[in-house]
C-alpha cells in the first residue's frame, strides 16, 4: 500500500462484509490498518474502525433509507479530493462493493481525476446473511442456482428493471437486497408471474450481527407478517424452498451469547483475551478502551524505580500483582541495564495463574503464587513465610490499594513501593457508543478493574452525556471481582454478576448464564 509515485494517494474500495467483523477479508483488513482516511457508511460495522492506525481520520457518509448523510456525487468527489492530497483512502462499504455498491460511479470519478484505485471484494450479504440464518442459497435437493436482485428501485420502475417472468420460471433461489420497503409489491409480482403462493420466504434483518432476526412465511403471508412484526430494513429477502432447511440448519441463534452486544472496556492491548471467547460464543463485542497503561512520566516516580533496581540485593521479597506489573517490571529491568541474575536471591510473589504465567514467559518461576486474586490473597500466602525486618518491594500500578502495604508494615516488614506503570484515560471520544447506549443496544458491560468503572463514567461525562450512570443502566454489568463490583455499586450501577474466580473465563461463564436466563425469560413470555 504505497503512495503513487506522483504524490497522489490511492483509494481502496473495500468490502467490509455483512456486519460480523470476522468476515472482512485479510486484504481488506490490511488496507484498513494502513489507511490514512477511512470513509464508511451505515452498513459497515463501526467495530472495524478499531483496526485503524493512530491518527487516521474517519469520515461517516452513511445513508438511511429516508435520508442521506452525504449525496453520492459528493462522496465520489470526496474520495478523489482525499487521494489528491496524498492519502491512502479506504472506502469501506458493507458487503461486497460490486454488489449494488455503486462502485462504478465512484471509480468513474476517480479515473476522471487520475486517481489510482483498487477494488477489494468482500463477503456479500446476499449469501452470508441467509447462511447465518441457517439457509444455504443452493442445495442439491432444492435449488441449483440463485439470483440476486435489488429491491431498492422505485415501485413504478420495478417492472422496468426486473425480469419477473424469467425469474419466476427459474427453480432457483431469489435473493432481494434492500427490498423490505417493497416487500408487498415483490411478493405480488412473483405470484402474478407464476410463483406459488405457498413458496417459503424468509426475511433476515441485520444478519451476522447482534440484532439478527429472522421471520419466515410464504409469498402469500409474508407482507402481512412483516407489518405485524414491524420488521424493518436492512434485511435480505430469501424466496425459495431452501428456506425449509432453516429448521434443521439454524446455528447462529444456538450459540450461548447470540444476540448480545458486549461492551469491552479493557485496554486495547489486553482486550483480545476477553473479545475472542465472547465472539466464539456468538456474542458481538464493542470495544471502547477506557484505560491505557504507560510508564511513569514524573521524575520522582522514575527515580524511585531506579533506586529500587540498583538496590535489588536489599530485598527479600518482590510482589508483582498483575500481568501489566510483570510486563513493566521487565521493561524497567532492561532500561536499568540489569538482568534477572541481580534478583537471584529475591523471592517473587505473584497473584493468580495469569500473572504467574506472564512471569514464566520471561523464564522465571514465581516462588509464591497467591490462589486468591486480591491483595488479601497475597497476604494469606505470605503471612506464614515472612519475618519482621524483611524488606519487601511492592511493584505495581499507580492505582493499587494501600491495604497490603499497611498490613505488611503492621507486621514489622520494611516496605518499599514503586509505581511500575500508570493507568490513564485515553483521549478518545466515541459518538457511536453514545448512540448505542441511547438505543439500549449494549446488552452487557464488562469491568475488569475499578479504573475501568470510573474511567467509563468519566469518558461519557467528557462526551457530554448528562447522566452516565443512568445511560449505562439499560445493560447488565459483569465485574471480574468483588473490589471492582464494589466500585461499580458505589458509582450507582446495578451489578448483575461477579466472576466467581476473578478470571476472564469466569466472567464469560457469568455472561453465558445471564444470556441463558434472558432467553428462558423471553421463551416463557412468548409462551404465555
Describe the overall structure.
By secondary structure, the chain is α/β, with parallel strands linked by helices. It folds into four domains: 10-123, Tetrapyrrole methylase, N-terminal domain (Cobalt-precorrin-4 Transmethylase, domain 1, 3-Layer(aba) Sandwich), CATH 3.40.1010.10; 127-249, Methyltransferase, Cobalt-precorrin-4 Transmethylase, Domain 2 (2-Layer Sandwich), CATH 3.30.950; 261-291 and 428-525, 3-Layer(aba) Sandwich (Rossmann fold); 294-424, Rossmann fold (3-Layer(aba) Sandwich). Strand 19, helix 15 and strand 20 (414-424) form a beta-alpha-beta unit. The protein is elongated and about 95 Å long.
Morphology call: elongated
- What Rg, in angstroms, do the CA atoms define? 28 Å
Mean model confidence by pLDDT: 92
CATH architecture of the largest domain: 3-Layer(aba) Sandwich
CATH topology of the largest domain: Rossmann fold
Strand content: 15-25%
Number of separate domains: 4
Helical stretch count? 20
Uncertain residue segments:
522-528
* Fraction of helical residues: 25-40%
Head-to-tail CA distance between termini: 58 Å
How are the strands of the largest sheet arranged? 15-20-19-16-17-18
What's the main sheet like?
A: 6 strands, mixed
Tally of DSSP β-strands = 23
Structural class: alpha/beta
CATH class of the largest domain: Alpha Beta
Properties at a glance:
5-stranded parallel beta sheet, 4 domains, Rossmann fold, 20 helices, 20% strand, 36% helix, 528 residues, Cobalt-precorrin-4 Transmethylase, domain 1
Amino acid at each position: 500500500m504505497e503512495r503513487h509515485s506522483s504524490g497522489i494517494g490511492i483509494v481502496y474500495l473495500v468490502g467490509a462484509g455483512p456486519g460480523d467483523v470476522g468476515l472482512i477479508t485479510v486484504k481488506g483488513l490490511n488496507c484498513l490498518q494502513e489507511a490514512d482516511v477511512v470513509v464508511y457508511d451505515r452498513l459497515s460495522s463501526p467495530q472495524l474502525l478499531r483496526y485503524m492506525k493512530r491518527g487516521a481520520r474517519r469520515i461517516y457518509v452513511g445513508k438511511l433509507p429516508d435520508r442521506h448523510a452525504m449525496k453520492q456525487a459528493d462522496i465520489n468527489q470526496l474520495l478523489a479530493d482525499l487521494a489528491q492530497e496524498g492519502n491512502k483512502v479506504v472506502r469501506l462499504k458493507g458487503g461486497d462493493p460490486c454488489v449494488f455498491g455503486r462502485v462504478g460511479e465512484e471509480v468513474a470519478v476517480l479515473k476522471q481525476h487520475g486517481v489510482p484505485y483498487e477494488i477489494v471484494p468482500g463477503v456479500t450479504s446476499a449469501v452470508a446473511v441467509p447462511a447465518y440464518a441457517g439457509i444455504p442459497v443452493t442445495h442439491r435437493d432444492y435449488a441449483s442456482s440463485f439470483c440476486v436482485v435489488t429491491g431498492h428501485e422505485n415501485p413504478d420502475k420495478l417492472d422496468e428493471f426486473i425480469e419477473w417472468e424469467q425469474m419466476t420460471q427459474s427453480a432457483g433461489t431469489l435473493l432481494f437486497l434492500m427490498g423490505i420497503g417493497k416487500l408487498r409489491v415483490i411478493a405480488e409480482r412473483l405470484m402474478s408471474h407464476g410463483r406459488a403462493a405457498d413458496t417459503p420466504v424468509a426475511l433476515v434483518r441485520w444478519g451476522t450481527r447482534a440484532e439478527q432476526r429472522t421471520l419466515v412465511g410464504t409469498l402469500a403471508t409474508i407482507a402481512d407478517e412483516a407489518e405485524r412484526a414491524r420488521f424493518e430494513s436492512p434485511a435480505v429477502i430469501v424466496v425459495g424452498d431452501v428456506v425449509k432447511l432453516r429448521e434443521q440448519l439454524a446455528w447462529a441463534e444456538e450459540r450461548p451469547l447470540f444476540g448480545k452486544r458486549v461492551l469491552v472496556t479493557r485496554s486495547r492491548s489486553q482486550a483480545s483475551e476477553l473479545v475472542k471467547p465472547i465472539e466464539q460464543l456468538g456474542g458481538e463485542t464493542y470495544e471502547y478502551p477506557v484505560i491505557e497503561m504507560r510508564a511513569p512520566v514524573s521524575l520522582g516516580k522514575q527515580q524511585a524505580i531506579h533506586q529500587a533496581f540498583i538496590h535489588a540485593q536489599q530485598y527479600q521479597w518482590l510482589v508483582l500483582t498483575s500481568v501489566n506489573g510483570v510486563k513493566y517490571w521487565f521493561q524497567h529491568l532492561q532500561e536499568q541495564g540489569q538482568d534477572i541474575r541481580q534478583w537471584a536471591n529475591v523471592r517473587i510473589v505473584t497473584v493468580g495463574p495469569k500473572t504467574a504465567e506472564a512471569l514464566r514467559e520471561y523464564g522465571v518461576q514465581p516462588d509464591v503464587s497467591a490462589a486468591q486474586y486480591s491483595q488479601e490473597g497475597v497476604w494469606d500466602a505470605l503471612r506464614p513465610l515472612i519475618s519482621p525486618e524483611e524488606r519487601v518491594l511492592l511493584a505495581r500500578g499507580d492505582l493499587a490499594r494501600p491495604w497490603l502495604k499497611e498490613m505488611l508494615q503492621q507486621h514489622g516488614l520494611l516496605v518499599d513501593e514503586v509505581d511500575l506503570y500508570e493507568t490513564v484515560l485515553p483521549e478518545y471520544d466515541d459518538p457511536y457508543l453514545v448512540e448505542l447506549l441511547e438505543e439500549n443496544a449494549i446488552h452487557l458491560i464488562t469491568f475488569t478493574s475499578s479504573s475501568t468503572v470510573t474511567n467509563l463514567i468519566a469518558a461519557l461525562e467528557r462526551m457530554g452525556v448528562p447522566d452516565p450512570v443512568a445511560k449505562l443502566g439499560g445493560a447488565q454489568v459483569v465485574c471480574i471481582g468483588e473490589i471492582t463490583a464494589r466500585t461499580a455499586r458505589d458509582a450507582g450501577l446495578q451489578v448483575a454478576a461477579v466472576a466467581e474466580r476473578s478470571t476472564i473465563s469466569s466472567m464469560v461463564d457469568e455472561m453465558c448464564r445471564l444470556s441463558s436466563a434472558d432467553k428462558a425469560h423471553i421463551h416463557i413470555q412468548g409462551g404465555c
